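User: Teach me something about this protein's shape.
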Amino acid sequence: MNLNRFLSAIFLIAACALPASANTQNSLIKSSLAGPVVTTEQVRAELLAWAPEGVEAGKPVWLGLQLTHQPEWHTYWKNSGDSGLPTMLEWQLPAGITAGEIAWPTPKKIPIGTLANYGYERTVLLPVPLTIATGFNAPQLDVKLKASWLVCRKECIPQEGEFSLSLPARGSTAASGPAFQAAFDAAPQPLPTGNSQLEVSGKVLKVSLAGLPAALQGKTLALFPETGSVIEPAGAWQQAWQGALWTAQLPLSGQRTESPLNMPLVVAYNDVAYRIEAPVTGEWPAVAAPVGLSPALQAALRANAAAPVAAPGASAKASPGLLVALLGALLGGLILNLMPCVFPVLAIKVVGFVNEKNQSRRLSGGLAYTAGVVLSFLALGALLLGLRAAGEQLGWGFQLQSPAVVAGLAALFTLLGLNLAGVFDFGSILPSRVVNLQAKNPSLNAFLSGVMATAIASPCTAPFMGASLGYAVGLPAVQALAVFGAIGIGMALPYLAASAVPAVARVLPHPGAWMVTFKQLMAFPMFATVAWLVWVLGQQSGIDGAGALLALLVLMALAVWSFSLRGAARRAIATFSIALCALGIWAIGPNIVKPVGTPLAAASARWQDWQPGRVEQLTAQGQSVFVDFTAAWCVTCQYNKKTTLANADVLADMDARNVALLRADWTRRDPAVTAALAELGRSGVPVYVFYKPGRAPVVLSEILSVSDVRAELARL
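Assistant: First, the predicted structure itself:
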């Protein structure tokens, strides 16, 4: 049998399986042309929705603007502190729908020189509750939002965006549930006023808060007044505990413009925060004349207003960042050919040159293969961008976060390996029209080979690809797809070059028995890939899921073998084996997609599970942190884990510098991990990051070396 025929058959089988796999995904939020995502160089803003019980009166319905900041940039809380402006949301909703106030998550204090602001870094979701009138009966809820925010580092840039999305009124919109739950958990919990009070005494505001939880007693708390322009955010202040009563003395602002009779305050300790509204006693000093915005902020606003705005649809010149991303994508695609999940396919294709003496046909096949690879990468990129625009928290390799897809790939690679080993011939189980497809359409076969190579390569991440893909997902669609296309060109380039150079075919041996041996040899990388995929599924669905998959693969092998028989034996054994497969799928198939009940990245004596906010907690205590963003289906991740990250010298250096080791497992979809990757400008794994107090995160190469890691440790 021709070495390439199986690629066409495998692709056709996979194409038939795709609709069923797609049906296992969550329902998507339908976005209008305006879209729910606005991206600038500093911020990625996305409109999210959460309506787990549909859009009905009395049911929870939330909208929210999620802001993902680039490192060192921040936006502001409702009280921005010494400078800044809070994020503003203007909703356009149908009749009968009203939006509430922002449920502001607890901010952090951000010192800037001699000033201090209250705001958010990394990723924050600003949730807003909706009230649905009893008479609302539209089939969907159409939402439009105009948002404005001020994003600052040392300089400030006013920005705005228009967003839109549609929610099905009768269906569940729950994909963003974890992001909203994280925002709810980050919001301060209300406490009754009780005996709490504030007293104005000269130029000091004395705070006495009663009723705080006993677990906070003796702890040093952070304080955030919701009323602005009352205290000096950067001023020195004192706090103390008097039994269960927490007291503080805060300096009044010399530019105070408010004299409230009641003041809501937020006090926080680590990830726990409480809100108390207390009465104010005493005589307020005379207020200062309103000063408006700070001179620096006014200058930033004027500069932004005077900046020319590009006309809609005008083509912009590619920035150096885009050019670097395209080059990195091209190099990453080239290196993908050396990955264990891609190299066997490339080798089989090149060996196939011995059967084609016509140089023009070889070149035609090379061009068709290239088209298959490039178009497949473009399609995969468009799917990823489309799902992200619809509100899904996804990144590169997202398809392998589904146990059903992993099981399907294991079945395909098993068929591939059995075919190469000579157990069966596709000609014995497929219609003659399909069998003759390769002979009649060699270019189509080469095209499908490129599609298959892309499917195999999709979970791999080569050097240079991580930064390029992370940059790409924040670009406009056309530029982002150009990066995905560059990966495809890089991956297809070696085969295209080989097909265009006649000398490659001349150096190969003449057709003979060696080709059968080589084909059978290539079966073993396929079976090794199956073993890896079963292990991946075991990480996702536990030992029962992995066992069920192995059993079903054995039954499938029995079925395809039975089709290679002849006569009455074929009919009897094939009928029995197909029935056995159906029974197995019904009986044990559900175990494959059943999630395990415990985290996969189990903590060890040295490694701990990554959790949102854990890095900030450790760095606040003065400890450096190393985070390994990984996944069981990522081959590069596992290689680095078994080599560099297990190196005795590296681990000794980590211990000597008291570096906390955290592992963020992305084997299954995890919006928190996806958001953390986005903050680092990445959309896939592996990603390795050093965090040091008072220093920006340092992202290492996807292919770790002992020398690179030890060199970075030496700089801590």
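Now, about its shape. The mean pLDDT is 77. The longest strand covers residues 140-152. If you'd like, I can walk through any region in more detail.
User: That's plenty for now, thanks!
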